[in-house]
Each structure stands twice: as C-alpha cells, then as structure tokens.
Design goal:
The protein is of the alpha/beta class. 28% of the residues lie in helices and 27% in strands.
Length: 327
C-alpha cells in the first residue's frame, strides 16, 4: 500500500482525497518509481480543484512532475536504484502522476536526475522552471541578446515567472516583471528584476501597436496581456508564450507581426522531445542560481497539496511549491 491523492468523478460529484492505494492498482508501465518529491503546478491546481478540464480519465492521481528512485524496471535505459525525474507527457492527466508515493510509468518519459540537483531541488524547478528554461532557449535561438534591450516576464511572482526572472538576470538581461500582487515587488526584484509593473497595464484591451519597448518576453498569461505585450515589443523582438492563466483567447491584430517583424513563439513543455529536455535541464544546472531556489520555493506534505491547490489557482501562492510525498 502507498499514499496518493486520488481524483474521482461520478454521480456524487468531483472530488480529490488522500487515500491508501494498493500497488496492484498502478497503471501499466515498464518502470516503477518510488517517488520522493513532486510539485504543484498551475495545471495540477486545475486538476485537483476541478476548475479546468485537465483530467481525462478517472480515477486519476494528479501531479505532472515527480522525482524519485527506480524500484523496478524492464526498460533497458533504467535500472533499480537510478535517480530519475519526469515532467509532463500527459502524466497527471491521462496517466497516474506524481502526487503519490509510487508511480508506474513508461521509461521513455523519464530522464536521469541531473547530478547538479537533489530530488528536492529538481522539483523546486519542476515543469515550471523547465518551461522557463525552454522560453529562454527560444529567445536565444531567435537571436535575442542582452544588448537588444529589456525582457518582460509576466506572472513574475509565479512558478514560471520566478525562474525565468532568475535565469534571465543571471545571463545578463535587464528584466522587467509584471504581477498583479504589488506586495511581491521586492521578492521579484530579489530574483533579479530591475523594475516591476502592475498587470493592469496589460490586462485590458489595448492598441494594435503601442510604444516599442521589449526586446523579448516570457508570457504565462495569454489573452489581452499577450496581445499587449506583442503590441509593445520592439522591431524584430521575440515573445514566447507558454501559459493561459488569463485566458486562452488572443484578442490581437497582425500589426506587430507584419509591421515590426515580431516573432511569437509557442512553448510546449508537455510533449517536448527528450533531446530538448536534456538540453534544458543541462542549462538549468548552469544558468539557474541554486541559491535563489530557497527564495522561490515552499515545501509542503502530501496531505497539504489539496488545500494548497485552490490557493495556487487563486493566485495566492508565491514561486514554487515542492511536495514531499512522504511527509
């Protein structure tokens, strides 16, 4: 038996509870992992609270991230005792995920835990930090350098935003953060931002083109915010889009793209090829100041994950939440 958060949906409604689960109930897979840590991401919050159509089958164990030790393996790439981590691949949505003390998975979804990180540190980074790194890599791939000007990061007090600000500032970029929580301004600046702007500047309908300011951007919000960010991006600037906290719509015009040559780059972390994941995690080991992880993270036990999920969706959680599944 092991403990897991189980999401159920039936005539009695939608609910998430911490339960004891028999190992025989684990889904199919060629690697069984004894999980030590998971995280709470925005998608996990939607799954646990039922506020978004994230879960595709029931019952479901949420948790799109996990780190732990291989307990059983018929996959030649992994042996018993290997330290591994997982981000995405539909885990926690269509396949039982990481908010449990055990997980059975396809070995193709796993990567070795990088030597630079403990399991706890890897989950402090999690999908949010790995996504932030994918955004930074996309900016670099499109030629954005610190000399080009300021980089805007929306949702800067959240998981993706906190890591993005930290990485970009360490790489020498001038970073401006956006948040709807002005009380978090000093926190965002402590991560490396030179300025913090209230999200109200971006969250309402704006002009097709605004004053050029940003050389690049990392956006986790979508909707009017993304449209306004694109409208105020400099000639040949690059905007990376990786979230929809403000909505899935994109009420914009083509003006920034055809008059200023702005590039809008979509970032998908869920099905990202393994080779790109390995590059992202290798770069995280170099470009993320691990000393700042303590500023970014808060650790909770598995039993606290359900209540914390609602706080996360309500925008009341700073940075990253690590879940110690054994406490």
């Amino acid at each position: 038996m092991f403990k897991a958060i189980i999401i159920e949906k039936d005539e009695a409604g939608y609910r998430a509870n911490l339960k004891d689960v028999d190992e025989s109930q684990l889904p199919e897979g060629d690697v069984t992992v004894r999980v030590s840590h998971s995280t709470l991401n925005y998608k996990d919050g939607l799954a646990i609270t039922g506020r978004g159509p994230v879960v595709r089958k029931f019952p479901m164990v949420p948790g799109i991230d996990l780190a732990g030790i291989v307990e059983e393996s018929s996959n030649p790439a992994f042996k018993v005792g290997d330290a591994v981590l997982l981000n995405g691949w539909g885990v926690g949505e269509g396949h039982w995920g990481g908010l449990a003390q055990k997980a059975r998975l396809k070995g193709d979804w796993l990567i070795p835990l990088p030597s630079q990180f403990t399991a706890q540190q890897a989950m402090a980074i999690g999908t949010a930090g790995y996504t932030a790194m994918l955004c930074v890599l996309a900016l670099e791939r499109h030629g954005v350098t610190p000399e080009h000007g300021e980089i805007l990061v929306t949702g800067a007090a959240g998981g993706v935003g906190s890591v993005a600000v930290s990485i970009l500032s360490k790489l020498g970029f001038t970073v401006v953060g956006v948040t709807g929580r002005p009380e978090e301004s000093e926190y965002i600046k402590s991560l490396g931002a030179t300025e913090v702007i209230d999200r109200s500047v971006f969250s309402t309908p704006g002009k097709p083109l605004a004053r050029e300011r940003w050389a690049g951007a990392v956006d986790v919000v979508g909707s009017h915010t993304l449209a306004n960010v694109c409208a105020s991006t400099k000639y040949r600037g690059v905007v990376t889009a990786c979230g929809l906290a403000g909505g899935m719509d994109f009420p914009a015009t083509v003006a920034p793209f055809i008059l200023r040559g702005v590039s809008l780059v979509g970032i998908d972390s869920v099905m990202c090829p393994r080779a790109d994941r390995l590059v992202a995690w290798q770069r995280l080991g170099v470009d993320l100041d691990l000393a700042k992880l303590n500023l970014i993270t808060n650790e909770i036990g598995l039993a606290e994950a359900i209540s914390t999920a609602g706080q996360l969706i309500d925008g009341k959680v700073r940075g990253r939440v690590i879940v110690n599944v054994n406490s």
